[in-house]
Amino acid sequence: MSNNLPTIAWIGLGIMGSPMSENLIKAGYDVTGYTLEREKLDRLAAAGGTAAPSVAEAVRDADVVITMVPASPQVEAIAYGPDGILENARSGALLIDMSSITPQTSIDLAAAAKDKGIRVLDAPVSGGEAGAVEAVLSIMVGGEQADFDEARPVFEALGRTIVLCGPHGSGQTVKAANQLIVAVNIQACAEAVVFLEKSGVDLAAALDVLNGGLAGSTVLTRKKDNFLNRDFAPGFRIDLHHKDMGIVTDAARTVGAALPVGAVVAQLVASLRAQGDGGLDHSALLRAVERLSGAQV
Questions:
Q1: How far apart are CA 268 and CA 263, in angstroms?
Q2: Contact of 238 with 266, CB cutoff 8 Å
Q3: To the nearest 10°, the Cα dihedral for 176, 108, 88, 115?
Q4: Are residues 98 and 180 in the same domain?
Q5: pLDDT one digit per residue (tens) for the chain, 297 residues
Q6: Exposed, middle or buried: residue 158 (CB in 10 Å: 0-12, 13-18, 19+)?
Q7: For residues 221 and 94, what is the distance between their CA atoms, to the nearest angstrom?
Q8: CA angle 240, 243, 245 (to 5 degrees)
Q9: Could you tell me where the beta strands, DSSP code E, fall in the chain?
Q10: Within 10 Å of residue 15's Cβ, how many Cβ atoms?
Q11: Which of 114, 116, 175, 198 is catalytic?
C-alpha cells in the first residue's frame, strides 16, 4: 500500500488481536502479523494483511510494533532474546504493548528497549471482544507524551477513549484497577441474578429496570444476555481474569492499598478456575454463585 501511514507489525492475533489488527487494515494501514495459530495468520491475510513466519520477520521493517498476548511471560518471550522484538526491530521504532501485564514488566521492557533505541508505550485496553470488533475500546496508556501523540492516530482506529495515564507502567496500573471493578461488578450482578430467580421474578424484566437506574453499568449491558441465556462462550476468559486479579492484588500489596472485596472476588475467580470453568467467559461467575446456592451446574 503506498501511503504515508506508518507500517505496522502485529504480534498476537487472538480474540482481541485479530479484530483490532483488521480495524487497522480497514483504516488503511499496512499490517504484517505473526501469531502461533496458522488459521489466525490465514485470517489476517484474507483481511488484507501480510502473514509473517516469525516475530523477527514481522518486525524487521515496521515503524510501529504492536503486541497483544495473554500475560507477562508471553510479552517477555516475544520481546527478548535473539529472535525477539528488541533484537530485530529497527532503531527508532515504536513498540506498543496492548497486553495486560504487571506494571513492573512494562517498566522493565521500556528500560531494555531504550538501550536499543526503541520507544515503548504500555497501552492495555478495556471493552472485551465486542469493543475490539466495534473499535470502541478504552485504551489506557503509560509512557512519554511525544510517543503517545505519535501513536494517537493508531489508537483512534482501535478505540474511543484514549488517555495517557502517566509514565511507563501507568497504563497497566489503570488496567488492573479496571479489572478489579469489572470482576466485582460481575460478581454483584451474578448474586442479584440468583436472588431474583430464586424469588420467582421475571429475570429479563428485572435486569432491564435495574440497568436503567443507578445499578446499571456497561458490565450489565454487555453481559445481560450471558446471564439470561447461561451463554458463557468466552469474550474474556476466566483464566485471564484470574491472571489479572493476581496482578491487582499483588500491585495493591506493593503500594499498601487494601482491597478487601477485591480479594474475595479474586478467590471466587480462582475457585471457578479450580472447578474447570477457566475457559468460560468471566460472566460465568454466575456459576459459582449458583453452586453456592445449591444448584448443580
A1: 9
A2: no
A3: 140
A4: no
A5: 447 999 999 999 999 999 999 999 999 999 999 999 999 999 999 999 999 999 999 999 999 999 999 999 999 999 999 999 999 999 999 999 999 999 999 999 999 999 999 999 999 999 999 999 999 999 999 999 999 999 999 999 999 999 999 999 999 999 999 999 999 999 999 999 999 999 999 999 999 999 999 999 999 999 999 999 999 999 899 999 999 999 999 999 999 999 999 999 999 999 999 999 999 999 999 999 999 999 999
A6: buried
A7: 35
A8: 110
A9: 8-11, 31-34, 50-51, 64-67, 94-97, 119-122, 125-126, 137-142, 159-166
A10: 17
A11: 175
**Nearest by Cα to 35 from 44, 26, 27, 47:** 44
Question: Which residue range(s) make up the domain with 281?
Answer: 172-291
The answer to whether residues 101 and 248 belong to one domain is no
116 is a catalytic site residue: no
Tell me which of 167, 182, 203 is where a domain ends.
167
Q: Are residues 41 and 123 in the same domain?
A: yes
Contact 10, 33 (CB under 8 A): yes
Give the residue carrying C-alpha cell 488517555: 163
Q: Measuring CA to CA, which residue among 113, 236, 114, 121 is closest to residue 171?
A: 121
Same domain, 158 and 14: yes
Q: CA 109 → CA 104, 150, 230, 263, 280, distances in Å? A: 8, 19, 40, 28, 31
Looking at the structure, tell me whether residues 97 and 151 fall in a common domain: yes
Whether the pTM exceeds 0.85: the reply is yes
